[in-house]
């Protein structure tokens, strides 16, 4: 017997497939939406219906968030958006499944697909384990240089 969760998952899968059909038919028609695809293209896909919403936090653990800007593809605005969605820590991002990545990719307004394009999950796994990526090393060096420059000008 199907559950509500099964139904939601099937609806999300259906929405993805319908969007793919529209994209392929549009591509095959030279950028013109075909008559068959028009009803699908006209239907608004609810971003919340795609994928599975990851576990969110109301606030960072112990009142201290991780510096998500150490993940390639996350700048100050993206970090704020992640925090507003309830994502504060590397270990949260490191645990995302493919379905959760799909949900976040779809719900990052103005940045759709960023999680996948910039490969956040492997970076977050490295950072959560206390390691560093090439990008995080660059960010740390820039931050250190900026702090040193500030300290020097304050003297």
Total count of helical runs of at least 4 residues: 8
Order of helices and strands: HHHHHHHH
- Strand content is under 5%
Shape: elongated
Structural class: mainly alpha
Mean pLDDT over the residues: 82
Uncertain ranges? none
Task: Give the C-alpha Rg.
Answer: 20 Å
Q: Quick one: how many beta strands?
A: 0
Main β sheet profile: none
Helix residue percentage: 55-70%
Q: How far from one another are the termini? A: 72 Å
Key descriptive features of the protein:
8 helices, mainly alpha, 155 residues
Describe this structure in words.
By secondary structure, this protein is an all-alpha fold. 57% of the residues lie in helices and 0% in strands. It is built from eight helices and no strands. The radius of gyration is 20 Å and the shape is elongated. It starts with a helix and ends with a helix.
In short:
By secondary structure, the chain is mainly alpha-helical.
Write the layout of secondary structure elements.
Blueprint: H1 4-28, H2 38-42, H3 76-84, H4 90-94, H5 98-107, H6 114-117, H7 120-128, H8 134-154
């Amino acid at each position: 017997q199907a559950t509500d969760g099964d139904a939601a998952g099937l609806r999300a899968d259906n929405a993805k497939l319908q969007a793919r059909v529209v994209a392929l038919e549009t591509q095959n028609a030279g950028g013109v939406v075909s008559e068959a695809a028009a009803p699908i293209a006209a239907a608004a896909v609810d971003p919340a219906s795609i994928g599975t919403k990851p576990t969110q936090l109301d606030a960072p653990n112990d009142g201290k968030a991780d510096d998500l800007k150490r993940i390639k593809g996350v700048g100050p605005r993206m970090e704020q958006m992640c925090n507003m969605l309830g994502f504060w820590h590397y270990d949260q991002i490191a645990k995302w499944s493919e379905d959760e990545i799909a949900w976040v990719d779809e719900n990052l307004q103005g940045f759709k697909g960023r999680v996948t394009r910039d490969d956040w999950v492997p970076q977050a796994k490295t950072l959560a384990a206390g390691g560093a990526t090439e990008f995080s090393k660059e960010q740390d060096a820039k931050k250190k240089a900026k702090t040193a420059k500030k300290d020097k000008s304050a003297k």
